[in-house]
Sequence to fold (1200 residues):
Amino acid sequence: MSDSAVLLIDCPDRKGLVARVSGLLYEHGANILHADQHQDHELGLFFMRVEWALDEHGNGHGAGGTETRSVAGDFDLEAFKAVFAPMAAELGMRWRLTSRTQMPRVALFCSQYLHCMADLLHRYRTGELACEIPVIVSNHRAVERLAGFYGIPFEFVEVTAATKSDAEGRQLQVLAEKKIDLVVLARYMQILSPGFVAHYPAQIINVHHSFLPAFTGARPYHAAHARGVKLIGATSHYVTDLLDDGPIIEQDVARISHRDQVEDLVARGRDLERIVLSRAVRWHLDQRILCYGNKTVVFD
Amino acid sequence: MSDSAVLLIDCPDRKGLVARVSGLLYEHGANILHADQHQDHELGLFFMRVEWALDEHGNGHGAGGTETRSVAGDFDLEAFKAVFAPMAAELGMRWRLTSRTQMPRVALFCSQYLHCMADLLHRYRTGELACEIPVIVSNHRAVERLAGFYGIPFEFVEVTAATKSDAEGRQLQVLAEKKIDLVVLARYMQILSPGFVAHYPAQIINVHHSFLPAFTGARPYHAAHARGVKLIGATSHYVTDLLDDGPIIEQDVARISHRDQVEDLVARGRDLERIVLSRAVRWHLDQRILCYGNKTVVFD
Amino acid sequence: MSDSAVLLIDCPDRKGLVARVSGLLYEHGANILHADQHQDHELGLFFMRVEWALDEHGNGHGAGGTETRSVAGDFDLEAFKAVFAPMAAELGMRWRLTSRTQMPRVALFCSQYLHCMADLLHRYRTGELACEIPVIVSNHRAVERLAGFYGIPFEFVEVTAATKSDAEGRQLQVLAEKKIDLVVLARYMQILSPGFVAHYPAQIINVHHSFLPAFTGARPYHAAHARGVKLIGATSHYVTDLLDDGPIIEQDVARISHRDQVEDLVARGRDLERIVLSRAVRWHLDQRILCYGNKTVVFD
Amino acid sequence: MSDSAVLLIDCPDRKGLVARVSGLLYEHGANILHADQHQDHELGLFFMRVEWALDEHGNGHGAGGTETRSVAGDFDLEAFKAVFAPMAAELGMRWRLTSRTQMPRVALFCSQYLHCMADLLHRYRTGELACEIPVIVSNHRAVERLAGFYGIPFEFVEVTAATKSDAEGRQLQVLAEKKIDLVVLARYMQILSPGFVAHYPAQIINVHHSFLPAFTGARPYHAAHARGVKLIGATSHYVTDLLDDGPIIEQDVARISHRDQVEDLVARGRDLERIVLSRAVRWHLDQRILCYGNKTVVFD
Fold:
């Protein structure tokens, strides 16, 4: 992947927003690779994602060209930011400007079930996830060997009803030391306190093993089996104070039949969980997601 | 479709059930076309569906054979029933024996939205649904012309809060006169009273425009949009006293995105509703469904 | 749906295209409702679709506002075109500017199978397809009564091997008289000659009952059954000189099993055909599709 | 999973097959857990899969019962076989009788892409695949460390055009020494010779990264991109002499758009490959698959 920058914007909708942003980028010589926007007409909101090359050859044309590289070709991110910031302030924009050169730092949390963890680590290893993973945190020892295989430091933090507050304190300390940007709950079975969540707003991704909002809470496969549904689902979402209620990022389902017992649902569901969680993490890392209210815009 | 008989059974599970039923059919010379069974190990229940040819040529082999038809070849359904009934009583079986020669009689109910109705009528006309449709009932006049096009008697029954009880009385009278076996609610927007439902246990099929148990009740597409789900669904189910709570027959989903407004969900959902309702009706007519507890077994 | 204009563009990619188009629209006071673009980096091509309101209230905010309507608010499409055209010429753009006030005129062709036709007509009647349908053409009489029910003129044109050229002549004459913009082949079983196709480049949509490029040509369900596939498909595409080879617009699949005979595939396939054809027609009418090479860009 | 036996049968169809097989099992006191059959009416063939408990408590009822175990309760597999074999011979049956106590022995082959391998190994470790994996064979060293992590012997066999015949000789020797029952090609990029394939008829499972029969041969994602399809697929199948032509076991697809480049297809496809291959392996191990002609019956 060539080096590029991504600008994410949300603000009140008004005329000329696309023109002003794209005009400014043009003036700075940006070669736009992708641009997408969305309006929520009901709420009068505007959302935009624009990605451009940071070097002249980052445009995808010249995989093996003989052209000499223009010295003046590189995009000056700081100069652009200096001009863009006041315009954004004037237009009431919230914005985030990132470049692919700064890899986000991700902490993975899990408990005893390792299928999501094993899946994420394999994707990480093969370059599918554009991030650093400086730590794996768990209240079980089961993941330690797997972490070691992938060369990732493992942090064991025991959690009991009595020690939960201390445990969260220890976890937050680890996250701070490791300069973590994103926490991924890969079937982590402990509920995080509002105090913990407040440290990472829209920066904690969880996977819930049901098609939310159906079957919130514990043992959703048992509940699905009891209700006799014909499809089971899984949902990845940002974590908020309310359990299983945060902005949904991705969902998927699989067909089941009367022949499937709870353990079959659990097994089928593992494939769904892996897929919806890994998509959510990849999209977050690719700066494709904007949260607003209790919803997400996911730019494709 | 050649002439065939279907036997549906449910009973407490015990050894030898398949052997005894298939043995009896063999003794009567049945040529079995399909047989399927299911055990619910948790509840200790046994379910079976077996279909066999009623004439020697109903086996699908001899599409254009030169063999002469055996006079003795036809299966004697009454003789089989006379022997099977006492065995079934001994084994505690509930059972239903039907033959394709007796077409079930179906009443369609709808309100102002006609997409499910138009879809069912087209399928009926092209032979996809093995039934008679002697009446369409509605509290709106919108469907009358469509009913006329397909040559089906239309019964207008106005329903208001004040007249609901009288309206249901009139509807039940129509159903009795027409000797109806199955009532299909093709987006019929009135809630049927428990008294009405009691006349047709597991014989009223409804379509609900959500992925149940999420978004029960009114305006599910609005609720789905408000929650920010990434898939919408539709569910066909048998009607019971509890709203949107009966045994689920079929469900399906479609992917949506942040771009979709409520009206887009409504439009996408229409395709789902048509499909899950028409499948449920076809499976019911093909004697593929057994209800138990609040669930269904759907033999494929 | 409020009144809006859509501009579709494709041209060689270069810096500043988004800025120049959106800047020009802003200067003319356009309120952009949706904008989307795409680059094919391999071929160095740029594609854009932008939609904006033609009246001040077309922005979706003011469903029931009390504000008085600005006399100066309406967008002047002709003035915009006069300025845009020379810019487009300079940049080597192919473009198409349409407004929702001009309804495209669609001719439906079919043969003996009516499921796609019935589906399209019902969608048309309920307002799902933004077009006029001034004629239905068929080489079978089967559709005549259905056309009459929807009040659409029916044109019977017999086609035999001997009369095919004359038949196409007659069909072209009908299309010209009716000022047709789009021809939809709703399971029309005759192959159109290159001469015919040349009159309507990227303006004839066909549905093929397989997952192309698998199973081109006649009897694809038989071929799928013979190969033992586990999914069947359907494909909607623009018609070109090569049979079943034109740019693909939409595809979908359904799961089958060893239990399904050819006639089951045909029945399951009908639902797929209806859905992929109706989506293609709707997207074409909504000006969402750009063809290039043998592919399509479908803006969502 | 409790201990059970599975009997798979195929033979010419005739009356009474279900009755005779289930009758014999009943006489031997079998407690049938699942039974399923299928007729191919066109070819006049009958297929059956029946699974029964090998001990009295294997019926799933008595998770924690107080009943004393009947000494006489265990099913005598050898005694059954002695009586069944002559009946099977008389009826022209091909059959396979296996019990869960004998774990099939599986060899995994791969080349440089490890996603399917990593997925299978994780499923194996967590008990999802009922088999032994005594060896991993590869012409690349990339998998060696992963094999070591899961404690599975690794066999490096270099393959070049010149040494292919020798390499296959060495591979066959390894398979013989390890008493392998099933070979799984987890993205193994060498074509096996007919001589090799002849040693393992319907015992080599491959995954091909397209929706067969579309895009056989090399670089299917490139071909799919060039054709502009809207869905990509993957197929697991038994290997025969003809490349990508063996009996299909499972297929699945994922939606793509004009935005997806070849490398996006490759990434999306990896998830499909993992899923269709792991399902095929699991079904084969669970004795759910019967091959006939160039097709499969997959009992669910």
In short: The two ends of chain A are 17 Å apart (CA to CA).
